[in-house]
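Our consortium's second objective concerns turning raw sequence data into structural hypotheses that experimental partners can test. To show how far this objective has progressed, the report includes one record in full. It was chosen at random from the queue rather than selected for favorable results. The single chain below, 160 residues long, was entered without modification.
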Amino acid sequence: MHEAIQHDPNASGPVCQHCGYLLRGVRSAVCVECGRERVRRLTFLDRIEFDAFRAAFDLASVPHEYSDPGKGMLGMATVAYGLSISPMILLTWRHIEAAEAALEDVGLALPVALVDEEEPYCPCCGFALDRALDEVRCGVCGTRCAWYDEHGPPEGAEER
């Protein structure tokens, strides 16, 4: 039994996408607060890319959840008021490898998470990364990460 710790909205680190609980230092693939599986969130600025990812996951039967707030009445309201709400896909940690394989089959890839060399922690789970490697895969959640410094991200990479 763990003692519940109140989430500090000013604290940095990974949070549960379901309940907002701060998960820095938690190795479990399940949130210790709400008990739901931890997920990697993919946010898209390009609707074509979002649709391509969803189609690849559907084709390969990779379990995922998605939210597309740009459709329907909410989407019309956001356009009318000049707001932009990006669609997103949620992948559970245990399905990341299957998602990577599905995307590779259609010539796509999960984005590489960019990490500041001054704070060498995985943005998905919060665990320390080995700075000796140019590109590293987090040993806890499997997220592929690359480094950037005060000069910005490496050429050809984008931050998500």
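The partners drew two points from this record. Residues 1-8 have pLDDT under 50 and may be disordered. The first strand starts at residue 39 and ends at 43. Both points have been shared with the crystallography group to help prioritize constructs.
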